Amino acid sequence: MTEKEIKQMQAEIERLRADNARLQSEMIRLVSRNLDLSERLEEDVEMRRRADVARMLMLENIERQRNADLQDDSQLMALIDLKLEEKRWHLNPDFDSKQLAELLGISQERLARLFRNKSIYRTPEAYIDNLRTMNAMRLLRTQPNYSIAAISEASGFNHVRTLQRRIMDVAGMTPADYRALFTRDM
Asked: In this structure, are residues 69 and 110 in contact, taking their beta carbons and an 8 Å threshold?
């Protein structure tokens, strides 16, 4: 290799080093820019999420205010039926009269008074319990392969024994006997 070729190679190496340094500097600038854009995007997504939550809360508050303004107890009772049928809140074992009042946007006192005066169920708890019992009875008739424990859980009861007592109170027989009435021919 000649001296001229060595100098050309050294010049090429220097040029490549300079290009490499320039590219590294550009890469650092682009990574920094991408991080900045990523942070802005995360902030934007978070702001949109917060706006969506605020919008949802506003709509719920508007609906609760409308419900609270209902003077007609019959309309409020119909709204209770509609809300619980729509979302089936009562199938959650933790759902209680306090959550029902919050769902409607009324006080627990008004809810209790409503049930005392306008319902065959003397309390909101009795109403919720009845909905759970009716659901369990439907499942006993239509789902012969479900265990009693699975039906109890799917109907919102915390304990199988509670379901057993409720079916006994309503039908005068155990859940297994009640199921047998409807599944003999199957």
From this structure: no
